[in-house]
Amino acid sequence: MNYRHAFHAGNHADVLKHITLSRLIALLSRKEAPFVCLDSHAGVGLYDLKGDQASRTGEWLEGIARLWDAPDLPELTADYFGVLRALNPDDQLRYYPGSPELARQLTRMQDRVLLNEKHPEDGQLLKDNMRGDRRVAVHLGEGWHVPRALLPVAEKRALLLIDPPFEQADELERCITALNETISRMRQTVVAIWYPIKDERQLKRFYQGLEKSSAPKLLRVELFVHSPDDATRLSGSGLAIANPPWGLEDELNQLLPWLASKLAQSQGDWRLDWLVQEK
Ligand SMILES: C[S@@+](CC[C@H](N)C(=O)[O-])C[C@H]1O[C@@H](n2cnc3c(N)ncnc32)[C@H](O)[C@@H]1O
């Protein structure tokens, strides 16, 4: 386990993932009934963009830094920026929230947040960062066991983020297995799988696996910052979202052109379509 998310915190892929996560939580919060946010590969929860690891790559400069002072922030980014502004009250961008901190701050008193991180040091940092909030539980186990270990939940509504490091060749396949296990244990779960857009052949197999999965409906969201022809670099990233709440497609249709224009490097583009249509 060599991957450390601190090197990539706040990059274009994090921006897409975290704005989408903030909208999923907002849309689930329209109903009073509680829900549970689960994160199988949670990271440390909070990142210092001026720290050694993030400074070494500077990826955030082509990500969140491009949005921070934008005069045309869409209203749909207000929740996400609310968390960022709270972490950086002097208006200097330095601290960036990971998915655990976003889930912790954006969920309500009646909701719970269940986090899992396997790396022992990162898991301890995550515990330290989440300390004091009794709605949050941190597990230091195997992320791929999360659906079997933690589902179904008593609340009857759940959102699961699956965000592995993609260090190993079988991780796209494992995402599909985790999706199927989740749906078989709790059919209505909203499952968001993050994936890198790099190797088109591998991705083709992944899309086929998603199409054949047991998800009742599944939306594909992708943001490109380079042309996808070059398999040696990250051209963008995507989220496969099973059971997206009503309204998400419309919101993403508004957000994606803006994100593509702000985050484009050699090129900016996006795609939003259904891989599984509701029957
Ligand atoms: C992409 S990062 C997560 C970022 C986080 N979800 C966010 O958006 O802020 C992936 C994390 O998965 C952890 N990890 C790697 N293999 C794992 C496994 N098998 N089970 C659980 N966590 C794992 C890594 O240590 C890393 O912190």
Automatic annotation (TrEMBL):
The record marks Y3 as: Interaction with substrate rRNA. The keyword Lipoprotein does not apply. InterPro entries: RlmJ, SAM-dependent_MTases_sf. SUPFAM superfamilies: S-adenosyl-L-methionine-dependent methyltransferases (SSF53335). It catalyses: adenosine(2030) in 23S rRNA + S-adenosyl-L-methionine = N(6)-methyladenosine(2030) in 23S rRNA + S-adenosyl-L-homocysteine + H(+). Monomer. Belongs to the RlmJ family. This is Ribosomal RNA large subunit methyltransferase J. It comes from Aquipseudomonas campi.
